[in-house]
Design goal:
The protein is built from 7 helices and 5 strands; from the N terminus they run ααααβββββααα. The two termini are 31 Å apart. Strands 1-2-3-4-5 form a 5-stranded antiparallel β-sheet, sandwiched between helices. It is globular and about 50 Å long. Helix 1 packs parallel to helix 3. By secondary structure, it is of the alpha+beta class. The protein folds into 2 domains: 100 residues; 75 residues, no CATH class.
Length: 190
Amino acid sequence: MSDRTETDHFAKELRDVSRSLDKKRFWSLVPEEIAALQGDPAKRQMVMRTAANEVARLSEPSARIELNGHSASSLLRAMAEAADVTPPDFGGVEGRGPDDSVIAISPFEPSEALYAFAFTRRGEKTTFVDGYFYRTAGELLERLSEKHGPGSPCYQQMAKFVADAERAANDSSLPPLADAILARTRKGAA
């Protein structure tokens, strides 16, 4: 199989998992694919890039069920496992997504095993993708205040994330999100 065909096949498998709602499948699919390519660093990097591109696609708010924060979180956690980095290593990653959007990934929230994603299109307010929910900054912080209290470390961490994500929306120098994710996998593996 050619590299392009292998990449397309793996990307299709990732999308099929997203649509199936079997998010735990990411935890075996990505590591299995990486393990099968152990002796080929270029192909291993290709698989991680394909997964990182899928995270960017899954971070975009959409009415379709497969595009949600649970899918993106599950895939990002599978990538962390495959790259042998801790999930918090992806917290604070920012980059350009599809159509010149800006996507920021929250610090890892261990109590819920989820990331939140901030998605901003030019000229629009930031949408925070939190699990299956799309929230404004105020709605996200209000939910966390009710759940954890405004003085809690979780609330403080997410308040900083909200401020950073809104700042990032105006930063034209951000790299593509896939590149930013891959840089963290290399940093963590070093």
